[in-house]
């Protein structure tokens, strides 16, 4: 009999860890349901433990709406600790709520120091729900984390039997099972029922062991906030964030990279106060091109990162440098 792959299974909470009031409670479980530990989740889906030697590790038990940057640091540190102390592991699976899964996944993609697969999963329906996707997602994640094909791909997100890159994937629907999509570029491949992990392209931006980030001595991440542009936006939010102590602002600008005129006035004032400004877009896809006016004012382009992903990278970039051109280089390469 072939030796089973060895997988560390870390739980942080989310829909996949919930049981509802009954099998049809697939939308109010967060208000009335109960949470499961990692071991309890596994007990519901014995096929997963048949496929690998699972090491269950409870890290958090929270809704993804309650995840904060300190949790990112703790989770990345935990994975790094396990990776360095247990060299026999084949990979990692992390359960997470889907609301902020993409942000956690991207943070781990930038800070985890291992080439072994780290796979983040969630579920759109609780483990107790009728036609839940929890078991299928978990089995797919274990198969991806066990595979040689996924080595060196950075952190991966696996739901609905689709393999996505942490940097690029985003949640696109409140309830649909196919909610996680990669705009423009598309998924990396499939985790199909035959057990084959079929990958068709590889992420090219720096990730995991190749990034410039080291979180060993970081106790707290810099404060970075997001400002939304919309018709008539007057810049009040920019003043409020500056007053509250923000170090950088991600402008979720009007496509292709334009705040409103009133916001521009406030942005100019913020730059004079040494607040770093990064232009992303609310459009959900496409690059923000760095115009000459942005270069001259020290405004950074988020490239094709959406606002929430740009915030993650900005927080880490500020631990390296406060210089706009150096931060821009980080955005161009990560």
Offer a few descriptive terms.
single chain; about 325 residues; alpha/beta; Rossmann fold; 8-stranded mixed β-sheet; 4-stranded parallel β-sheet; 11 helices; 16 strands
Task: Write a short abstract of this structure.
Helix content is 31%, strand content 21%. The chain is of the alpha/beta class and 334 residues long. It has two domains: 6-210, L-asparaginase, N-terminal domain (Rossmann fold), CATH 3.40.50.1170; 224-333, Rossmann fold (3-Layer(aba) Sandwich), CATH 3.40.50.
Tell me what the structure shows.
There is one protein chain. This protein is α/β, with parallel strands linked by helices and 334 residues long. It folds into two domains: 6-210, L-asparaginase, N-terminal domain (Rossmann fold, 3-Layer(aba) Sandwich); 224-333, Rossmann fold. It has helices at 29-32, 38-44, 46-51, 69-85, 101-111, 134-146, 236-243, 261-272, 292-297, 307-317, 324-333, and strands spanning 6-13, 18-19, 34-35, 53-62, 91-95, 118-121, 155-159, 162-165, 170-171, 180-181, 189-191, 197-199, 224-228, 248-253, 276-281, 300-301. An eight-stranded mixed β-sheet has the order 4-1-5-6-7-8-11-12, with helices on both faces. Strand 7 and strand 8 (162-165) form a beta hairpin. Helix 5 packs parallel to helix 10 and helix 7 packs parallel to helix 8. The radius of gyration is 20 Å and the shape is globular. 49% of the residues are buried. The model has no long low-confidence stretch (mean pLDDT 95).
């Amino acid at each position: 009999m072939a030796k089973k792959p060895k997988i560390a299974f870390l739980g942080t909470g989310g829909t996949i860890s919930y049981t509802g009031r009954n099998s049809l409670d697939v939308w109010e479980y967060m208000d009335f349901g109960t949470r499961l530990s990692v071991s309890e989740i596994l007990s519901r889906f014995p096929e997963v433990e048949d496929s690998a030697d699972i090491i269950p590790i409870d890290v958090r038990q929270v809704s993804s709406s309650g995840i904060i940057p300190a949790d990112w640091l703790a989770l990345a540190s935990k994975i790094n600790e396990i990776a360095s102390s247990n060299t026999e592991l084949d990979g990692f699976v992390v359960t997470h709520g889907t609301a902020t899964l993409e942000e956690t996944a991207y943070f781990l993609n930038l800070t985890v120091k291992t080439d072994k697969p780290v796979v983040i999963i969630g579920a759109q329906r609780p483990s107790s729900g009728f036609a839940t996707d929890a078991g299928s997602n978990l089995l797919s994640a274990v198969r991806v984390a066990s595979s040689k094909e996924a080595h060196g791909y950075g952190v991966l997100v696996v739901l609905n039997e689709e393999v996505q890159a942490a940097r690029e994937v985003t949640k696109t629907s409140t309830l649909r099972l196919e909610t996680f999509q990669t705009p423009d570029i598309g998924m990396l491949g499939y985790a199909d029922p035959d057990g084959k992990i079929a990958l068709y392209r590889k992420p090219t931006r720096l990730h995991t062991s190749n990034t410039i980030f080291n979180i060993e001595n970081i106790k707290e991440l810099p404060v970075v906030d997001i400002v939304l542009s919309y018709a008539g936006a007057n810049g009040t939010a920019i003043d409020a964030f500056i007053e509250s102590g923000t170090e950088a602002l991600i402008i979720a600008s009007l496509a292709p990279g334009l705040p409103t005129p009133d916001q521009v006035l406030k942005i100019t004032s913020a730059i004079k106060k040494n607040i770093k400004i990064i232009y992303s877009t609310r459009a959900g896809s496409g690059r923000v091109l760095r115009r000459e006016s942005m270069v001259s004012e020290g405004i950074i382009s988020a490239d094709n990162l959406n606002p929430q992903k740009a915030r993650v990278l900005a927080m880490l970039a500020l631990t390296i440098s406060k210089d706009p051109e150096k931060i821009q280089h980080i955005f161009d390469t990560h």
